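$ fold --in a.seq
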Amino acid sequence: MMKFDCESADEFDNLLLSTVRQGDINLLERHLSTVSNPVLYLNRLYNERNSQKFTLLMIACLNNHRDVMCMLLQRYKPDLEVLNNIAFGDFSPSQQIFFNASVLWAATSINNFDMVKLLVEHGANVNHQTRTGSTPLRGACYNGNVSMARYLIDNGANMHLNKENNDTNLMVSVCHKHRNMVTYLVDELNCDVNECDGNGRSSLYDAVVCASIELVEFLLKRGAQNFRAIVDQMSPLMWAAEKKRPDLVDIISPYCSILERIEAQELLGSAFACTNRDNDACDQSFNCFSRALDLRTTHNLSKAMTTTANAIFHNRYECQTIDQLEKIRTNTELTYIEGLLVRERLLGPTNAEYRYSLCYRGAILADIGQYHEAVAYWIYELGLCQQYSISIDSKHLRRFASLFSGMLYKTKSIPTEAIIIVIKAICDQLGRDKQNFNDNLFTLLFLITITTQVQCVSRMDNLYFI
């Protein structure tokens, strides 16, 4: 046996790594022939940037060197179930790392059917699961490779092994709009179209989110139901309305109850009202709201109205008649408020989409210089988070600092009560959110600095705000 001509074990490791990446079979064989037990080198993990760890066989796979893999498998029979930590594509600090990945899982993920067959023929575990529960079959579904999925199933793959949070193979196929794969899973393997993930969302929800008319129609015809998710109490129909997709609303509505159809039109109208600022949005909102009112009248279904008015909504209540709706038809501000009232009723105060629309309204008002009204909307949304124990993003709190500094620059004043509320909220977060402690502390210090500046300005200009 030859003795390798390297000064250290590290140099030999680097030599092996470089040779495998280049795909030089002959040189790799010569290097491995210089050691007494080459399998030790084949089964060990080599450290790479960004916490990656992989075997020589995995490197050959990721570089699409099938001939190198074939030589290693046939001659040395390495362990195919060594757990690798890998990333795909060029190195980047923000790359996602996939932990506990097998070579077969990687081969399916890069959609190399020849390598998949090679590995399965040499005994690779077709039901291997990564740290997050992903399987080789999921890799085939992700890429929409029906032939690969069929091959894995024929060789013992378990189609019922789901990723964490019960994320199914059908869901990932729908998310990537792989119609042929969806057809195979549902029509041939009888996958349940109403199986839900841990948030209570089914594949129909994913079809709506990816805006696939074709898959929405397919799933509905296969018995998909329009039930509400656990996490946000929103159904696929409601999401179609929220995403301003009247075409999807029209497709799903015939499969739903009359009340669901009415509320979808109301939510669709509110989505147009609360995301656009032009006359077209008012017209679109009016048409949706009026259709909903007509249906409520026809079927004698009244709205569940709130009994108390809210000052930030100008103490208004939702329109109950077409005549009331006509009066606000061309008024973008009142139409927006109508939309917010609808969203509060249908989505509820804890819903993220509703709370976002409040913040968006505040941002619009700030852009046109109505700072005090803007602050009122943001304070109201902050109060909802506090009332219902909803996590408050440190970036959200930082936006208050931006708004207050803008007010200070433009008007030389900041509402006392509002800044005190925000400071108290940040102090609460300092005790709760250790991960974003520094960000929240910087925001707090910035607000304190603003407060002292306002005091100085007050003395100079005879102002009295703080």
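$ fold --in b.seq
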Amino acid sequence: MSQNNIKKNWNDIFSKAPDTLKKMSKINSVASAFNSCIDSVVKLSGEEIYKLIKKEKLSLKNLENIEHQSIDSAADLLKGVFKCFTKGIAEEWTAEDKSVFDWMLINLGTKKMQTGGQAGIIANTLSLTDIKQVIVHSNALSELQASQFFNRPNLVSFDSDGTVKQASIINRDKASSIHWIIEFDKGDKLTIDGKEFICPKSNRFIATYDPPLFDFIIDKNFIDYTNSNKIDYFILSGYQALSSENNGVEYVKNSLPIIEEWKKASPESIVHLEIASTQDKKVRKAIALNLAPYVDSIGVNERETMDILEVTEQNKLFEECRKNPSSVNLFKAIYNIKNKLNCPRIQLHMFGLYITIQNKDYPVSPLANRNGMVLAATAAASKAYTGQLAAPSDILEACGQSVSDIGLNELNELSIYLQQPQLIEIGMGEYKGFDIIAVPTIIIEKPKTLVGMGDTISAFSLIGAR
């Protein structure tokens, strides 16, 4: 089949995304935990980054001297921004010092606020579908934070008395949790000490100030409700902000009894763990070894794949992926991760391509999985194109746009490596006793935002597939 025919075939497959979206009305309930917050989204140009660096009197040597991947000062924050800008990567660092929070308020501002955190973003996005009930966990829910949730009656949380209410009208706590999402564009330039840096890929740096999340405060009302009502899907995240110096490993391990109770209460449910950029290696290792083996599905991007390789001591694969994050190398990585962690399903979302490896007896068929991944690719492209999925019609805004040549090329290389020629044509194949599903994506050249992209992908890929 020629490249043009392959692209036409995939565009025909993508044209079925509206049908997949309609089927989501059959889902009764999704619970999304544990982190929801306010995202303050800031788009910084290279020139604006330079001004902040100059204001803090930092040299190139200072910026490249990263002693820890946490934010104890404005200098630390700018080191993280500089690293992600120059490498075109995404990372999330935490700030626990109130003075850093105050600096960000003054110098970055809160001009554009929206619901943030994996749990919050996923819940907000899924509420735009016809899922009957989306239950969101929030460590803190002030009037300001609650108002960032969409005004949707199917999106609910809990007030101080434990009453289930529409999430957007709750006023439970005084404090608000704010995460700054600092975005930058591919091709933008930054000159420091006479050396020019060009951003290789549009991406973002996340600076998290979230005391309730650092202490992993869990709303008992959420736990009681999800233990006494049938839930179809549980989406888990929020561990990335934990510190091993503040009982982070224990907090991760303490989630296991919660998951066990969920599975008892809703035995047919699917529990998905969204792996996020976790800087504390001890916490990251605990997530990989103590949580991932006990859920039904995990989601990762390129960086998170390498993070797991690092803490599971798969050093050779780590170096291969770091030097060349191609579809073949990343497939080798997630295949090894799946086997090492014994997780029934793992999904990778990389630039231009999504790949899923799942057990043969997984409750979602390869075809349904592919359809969910196609819907996810459409929704993610729509989010990049519009800037935010804020209305039901936004989900399919990118429907009709062509899949990318980058994605098709990566898929072709993968199909050759796996000796599965049908993979390039229909996106489904087999490898060593597992089902393989791979889908090229729609790439928006100048995305208006990348915030919550991975969360959108994982939510629609899995939940849209059943």
